[in-house]
Amino acid sequence: MEVVVENVKKLIQELILPEIGIIKDEYLEIKSILLLTNKRIDDINTHLADQSRRIDGLRVELKEEIAKNTARIDETNKRIDETNKRIDGLDKSLTARIDETNKRMDRLYDVVVRRDDHKVLERRIVHVEQVIEGMKEELLKLAA
């Protein structure tokens, strides 16, 4: 029986031990590949963490710039509103001046029309006076 055990042992050593050696070598190779992969993943995680910090920093900078630009836009809008108020005031002032100028032109027109009417009336009075003089002369001739 000992011989059988010895033969089984030899058979196992001849068949299984080489396979175990191959499996062991493959295991070591897989382990080294896994270690390299884990190192690469750690490097990528470190890189991602660095990128995340840079993105956070950039986000803070952008928020500051946006706040500055918003403040500048608000200031510009305020200045535009003030300019619009000044324009509205100027519009009212110019409208009032135009209205006053129109009134003065209307009064001037009335004066010019009265002068024309006055000249016409003067001519008519001179004509009537001449007619009356002519009538007086005729009456004097008739009375004489």
Task: List the defining traits of the structure above.
1 helix, 0% strand, coiled coil, t-SNARE coiled-coil homology domain-containing protein
Q: Helical percent range?
A: over 70%
Looking at the structure, what is the overall shape?
Answer: rod-shaped
Number of helices: 1
User: What's the Cα radius of gyration?
Assistant: 60 Å
Q: What structural class is derived from the secondary structure elements? A: mainly alpha
Determine the strand fraction and express it as a percent band: under 5%
The ordered H/E elements are H
Q: What is the mean pLDDT? A: 91
| Biggest pleated-sheet summary | none
Low-confidence blocks of residues: none
How many E-type strands?
0
Coiled coil: 48-93
Organism: Candidatus Desantisbacteria bacterium CG23_combo_of_CG06-09_8_20_14_all_40_23
Protein name: t-SNARE coiled-coil homology domain-containing protein
Keywords: Coiled coil
SSE order and pairing:
Elements: H1 2-143
Can you walk me through this structure?
- The structure is a single chain.
- 99% of the residues lie in helices and 0% in strands.
- By secondary structure, it is an all-alpha fold.
- The chain has a domain at 114-143.
In short:
It contains 1 helix and no strands.
